[in-house]
DNA sequence: CATGAATGAGGTTTCATTCAT
DNA sequence: GATGAATGAAACCTCATTCAT
């Protein structure tokens, strides 16, 4: 009990102090986790497999650096979101119209998938398998939901601006997200899949679905 | 090895002899499995939880009736597919045009989800978490892929008939499937979600995305 | 308790009344057990495998006819010993000298092995794996030991008659038995083995080892 | 599957790095396994019993140190063979003639059995119960066969040198081996047995059986 | 007599975590 | 910081036996 609490506190402090720049070990473990999750899926990504991939001699090392499996998974998602954010933001903001921005978002996601297939596969695996019941991940799900809300708001603005037609923006946004994630998931195991082409197709698809008549 | 195979043979024989309605216990276990999978997800649906839900005293009972976890999962999927088939086919075949059939398919799926949320949640959980690496489920994945191919062929026919515009039918079909499954997944844990309304929205969405200009 | 005792009593009575002629079911199960034991060995010969081989639909049938695994195994050994007795006795008694009888015994055992490889493999498997610790089989081991004692007595007589030289008859008898059983064991899995030739070699070997200088 | 393989790799590496003396725990587990196998036999030697004998709190510990039951058994055999090799080789090589060497081999085996009855009982239990069907042990059986072939070659040389008479060296070698193993097996459960005396008897027996007329 | 569902014990393995060094 | 042994829970599976039908 005491050990666990103090340990958790320590890590919390360190994590807060380290801000975005992780310690080398943590980053190494996160990278290994991404690989393993992409390979075998969220639930089969055991500490043993991750440690092996990271070149660590024991799983104790992971428990030492992360406050449990959830903490590691959170870090994986955070890491990939950071990567995606840096990649997508400029590509999206390069456009003015909402339609062009939506297209940039969809195609950007899948271009990113083409470049970092394992990263996107990993985050998709995690998010699809998250459940409300897991304590410690609930707050995390809320964050994801909030991210989605931001994009929903963009859809709404486009509708108010007359650029997009009338539709339920939440349903639309989730459909877009689901379609992208589906391609990502398949890309992880089918190297022959033309991810960028699928991105263009999806962009066309949702362009027709959203654009004013 | 040998025991497992021989056991599978035995069960196969018994299943064949049991005509259409399962042994009763089997059906009860499948029903319990559906509940548990919908609740806690594919990987956390242990024999222990399923046995408890089914009112069985031991997990050995499940191993007795099913040739391992994969066999049980296959039965779950088969059962739900049978339910869905019976529900959807008449609703789809009631329409002539491809567009109307596509709408009937999407809305039908989600009407079904409104009536049997746990059933659809369970099958979605299973299919999302299947990986090619699991021996014994590979052939099963192929079946799923074949089912999808049938629907893709419908899209192609609609295109040739001039009813649908030009698009990649595989990408379209997967997007539709992914959007439906996403709603199904959320419905399992958010009882307040208006699944039928989402169905109409998705039908509208994909109607605009597919229909000829 | 009561059920078990009465059941056991029932079987005891039936067995006693049935004398040497078993009921058809029992014989059928014993035959299947012999096959399975020869195939997979004593410990892996589960009721499930035996029932399958016997064409029975459940293992309950075996428990019904036999008072446990030990009882079945005893019956297997008894059955094979009866077979061997009928085969060997005339062949041995056809000879006068102890040396000729010993040779007839060794060669006869392996001729029998050539004709009924599964039967001999089964009994060897059982006897090799018997341990004193198993209650209910102890008395059975004593019987086996008694059988051996009879043969030892023959060796002793031959020594007193001056036909055999001086040696420890127990050690000799066990060496003979062990050598025969080793061939039997190999024959069960190596169909190419010339069992009869090995029998002649062993007969020569032990002839030289026993005969007076 | 994957986990098991990777785990095996890890252990292989560790074992290689541990020079000659094992990790200590491994040796302790092997020692406990020898005791348990000698007591209850190969198939009844469960991880639970071995862990208890080794003073371990859980069977998981054994799975941690060994890549499954087969790996542990291999280690047991290897350990005993190492012991036997060190004991027998000098005793055998102290003699010139083939006859003397054969006697030294037989008597040496049983002297060793008198000193380490459990060790020899354990290895005999394992080898007798091995079957070709067990994957992972097949290669191991081949090794055993190869060891026997070496000794068979010695018999052949003695025959060519005119020291031994004409006989099938394979049959002879197996008979010797079987006779020794039989004594070993009995010694494990009959502390009153004079193993060394039996050794001398067997040496005499096979001396008469092999020596030129 | 026969069936086959049910039971509970016991088997091996994997897992995340803790802790002494 | 780093290591890897130890732990105990939980997973799936097989087994022999019992029992209602």
Description:
- Four copies of one chain form a homotetramer.
- The first copy, chain A, has 213 residues and is an all-alpha fold.
- Chain A folds into two domains: 1-67, Arc Repressor Mutant, subunit A, CATH 1.10.10.60; 70-213, Tetracycline Repressor, domain 2, CATH 1.10.357.
- Helix content of chain A is 77%, strand content 0%.
- Chain A contains ten helices and no strands.
- The first copy, chain A, has helices at 2-18, 24-40, 47-54, 60-65, 69-93, 98-115, 117-129, 138-160, 169-189, 195-210.
- The N and C termini of chain A lie far apart (62 Å).
- The A-B interface holds A 40-41, 43-44, 128-129, 131-133, 167-168, 171-172, 174-175, 177-179, 181-183, 185-186, 189, 197-198, 201-202, 204-206, 208-209 and B 40-44, 128-129, 131-133, 167-168, 171-172, 174-175, 177-179, 181-183, 185-186, 189, 197-198, 201-202, 204-206, 208-209.
- Chain B binds a DNA duplex (21 and 21 nucleotides) through helix 1 and helix 4.
List the helices and strands and how they pair.
The structure is a homotetramer of 213-residue chains.
Chain A: H1 2-18, H2 24-40, H3 47-54, H4 60-65, H5 69-93, H6 98-115, H7 117-129, H8 138-160, H9 169-189, H10 195-210
Chain B binds a DNA duplex (21 and 21 nucleotides) through residues 3-4, 7, 14, 23, 25, 46-48, 56-65, 68-69.
Summarize this structure as a short list of keywords or feature phrases.
homotetramer, 213 residues, mainly alpha, Arc Repressor Mutant, subunit A, Tetracycline Repressor, domain 2, 2 domains, 10 helices, disordered N terminus, DNA-binding
């Amino acid at each position: 009990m005491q050990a666990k609490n103090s340990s958790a506190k320590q890590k919390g402090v360190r994590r807060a102090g380290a801000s975005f720049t992780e310690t080398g070990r943590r980053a190494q473990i996160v990278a290994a986790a991404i690989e393993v999750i992409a390979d075998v899926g969220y639930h089969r990504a055991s500490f043993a497999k991750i440690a092996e991939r990271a070149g660590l001699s024991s799983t104790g090392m992971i428990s030492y650096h992360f406050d449990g499996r959830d903490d590691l998974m959170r870090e994986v998602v955070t890491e990939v979101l950071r990567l995606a954010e840096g990649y997508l933001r400029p590509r999206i903001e390069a456009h003015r119209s909402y339609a062009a921005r939506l297209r940039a978002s969809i195609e950007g996601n899948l271009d990113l998938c083409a470049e970092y297939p394992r990263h996107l596969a990993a985050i998709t695996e995690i998010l699809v398998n998250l459940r409300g019941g897991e304590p410690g991940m609930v707050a995390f799900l809320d964050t994801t939901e909030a991210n989605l809300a931001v994009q929903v708001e963009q859809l709404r603005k486009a509708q108010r601006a007359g650029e997009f037609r009338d539709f339920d923006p939440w349903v639309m946004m989730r459909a877009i997200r689901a379609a992208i994630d589906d391609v990502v998931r398949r890309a992880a195991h089918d190297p022959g899949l033309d991810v960028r082409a699928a991105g263009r197709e999806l962009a066309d698809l949702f362009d027709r679905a959203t654009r004013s008549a």
